[in-house]
Amino acid sequence: MTLPLAGLVVLDLTHVLAGPFASMTLADLGARVIKVERPGIGDDTRAFPPFKDGRSAYFAAINHGKASIALDLKSEDGRETFERLMARADVLLENNRPGAMDRLGYGWEAVHEAYPALVYGSVSGFGHTGPDAKRPSYDMVAQARGGVMSITGEEGRDPVRVGASIGDIAAGMYLTQGVLAALLDRERTGLGRRVDVSMLDSQLALLEHAIAIASVTGKAPGPTGARHPSIAPFETFHASDGLFVIAAGNDTLFEKLCVTLGLPISDDPRFATNPARCDNVRLLKRLIEAVTLEHPRAHWIAKLTAAGIPTGAIQSVDEVMKDPQIIARNMVVDVLDRNGRQAYKAAGNPIKMSGAEDKTSRAPAPDLDGNRGEILRWLDGS
Amino acid sequence: MTLPLAGLVVLDLTHVLAGPFASMTLADLGARVIKVERPGIGDDTRAFPPFKDGRSAYFAAINHGKASIALDLKSEDGRETFERLMARADVLLENNRPGAMDRLGYGWEAVHEAYPALVYGSVSGFGHTGPDAKRPSYDMVAQARGGVMSITGEEGRDPVRVGASIGDIAAGMYLTQGVLAALLDRERTGLGRRVDVSMLDSQLALLEHAIAIASVTGKAPGPTGARHPSIAPFETFHASDGLFVIAAGNDTLFEKLCVTLGLPISDDPRFATNPARCDNVRLLKRLIEAVTLEHPRAHWIAKLTAAGIPTGAIQSVDEVMKDPQIIARNMVVDVLDRNGRQAYKAAGNPIKMSGAEDKTSRAPAPDLDGNRGEILRWLDGS
Question: What GO molecular-function term can you cite, just one (chains A, B) (predicted)?
Answer without folding.
Answer: CoA-transferase activity
